[in-house]
Amino acid sequence: MNDYAVEVRDLHKHFGHVHALRGLSLQVERGITYGLLGPNGAGKTTLIRSIVGLLRPETGTVRVLGRTMPDKSVMARIGYMTQNIALYEDLTVRQNVAFFAAMAGVTRAPRRIDEALALVELADRANSRVRELSGGLQRRCSLACALVHRPELVVLDEPTVGVDPQLRVQFWDHFHRLNAQGVTLIVSSHVMDEAARCDRLGFIRDGRLLAEGTERELLARSSRATLEDAFLYFAEQVAAEG
């Protein structure tokens, strides 16, 4: 077994005339948090949907946990939290988490559900209907749904959009605890100050991987003081190369 949870090779994907992914390749080591950083429309969501098997690229390959995607047998080993809230509003928090647990084939579901709710600090709102929750609490519920089956790979698309600073810190504390347990996370964001919380970073723009590495490596290679300036430097370099 190699050390990669995810291997992406030369992905191309079009939506009509829009070239969403342009020969993008990257590798994600196991047990780390890999940050996909780039502006809205950069191709992050398209890449994520390709990784979890919801999109099939025109060319290129995606391997997840040693299997070529899409592969239904891998789905139960992946946790996926979408950018938009994808919950059943008329169901309670517990019912939503139970539904996703059942979809993943979880055994001993009540115990797992209790653990997931405790992890995101929603045990006291377990019987509340989702539509009664604030946006931040709904995001906590979404995270519980993504984690209830104890996946080996967790893919989170803009998980902290619209949440308050305290909740953002709590989310990242959860993510680091998962890493300590050997879980791999891929987190997309357009917020540069979250990049320092990731073990490795991939800068994405216009469907291309501009650069990747640790925060220190990217700053050193660009000779810039901030990741925002480093991103602009690499974007200019790629543009100059055509």
Task: Provide key terms for this protein.
242 residues, alpha/beta, six-stranded mixed sheet, four-stranded antiparallel sheet
CA-based gyration radius: 18 Å
Distance between the termini: 37 Å
| Percent range of helical residues | 25-40%
Structural class: alpha/beta
The strand line-up of the biggest sheet is 6-7-8-3-9-10
Q: What sort of overall outline do the alpha carbons produce when their principal axes are compared?
A: globular
Biggest sheet character: 6 strands, mixed
Q: What is the mean pLDDT? A: 91
Low-pLDDT segments = none
Q: What is the overall number of helices?
A: 8
Strand content: 25-35%
Order of helices and strands: EEEHEEHEHHHEHEEEHH
Number of strands: 10
Mind explaining what this structure looks like?
The protein is an alpha/beta fold and 242 residues long. 36% of the residues lie in helices and 26% in strands. It has helices at residues 44-51, 72-75, 93-103, 109-119, 135-147, 165-180, 215-222, 227-241, and strands at residues 4-15, 18-29, 33-37, 59-64, 67-68, 78-81, 153-157, 184-189, 200-205, 208-213. A 6-stranded mixed beta sheet has the order 6-7-8-3-9-10, sandwiched between helices. Helix 3 (93-103) crosses helix 4 (109-119), helix 4 packs across helix 5 and helix 7 crosses helix 8. The longest helix has 16 residues, at 165-180. The radius of gyration is 18 Å and the shape is globular.
Helix-strand layout with pairing:
Blueprint: E1 4-15, E2 18-29, E3 33-37, H1 44-51, E4 59-64, E5 67-68, H2 72-75, E6 78-81, H3 93-103, H4 109-119, H5 135-147, E7 153-157, H6 165-180, E8 184-189, E9 200-205, E10 208-213, H7 215-222, H8 227-241
Parallel strand pairs: 3-8, 3-9, 6-7, 7-8
Antiparallel strand pairs: 1-2, 1-4, 4-5, 9-10
Helix pairs in contact: 3-4, 3-5, 4-5, 7-8
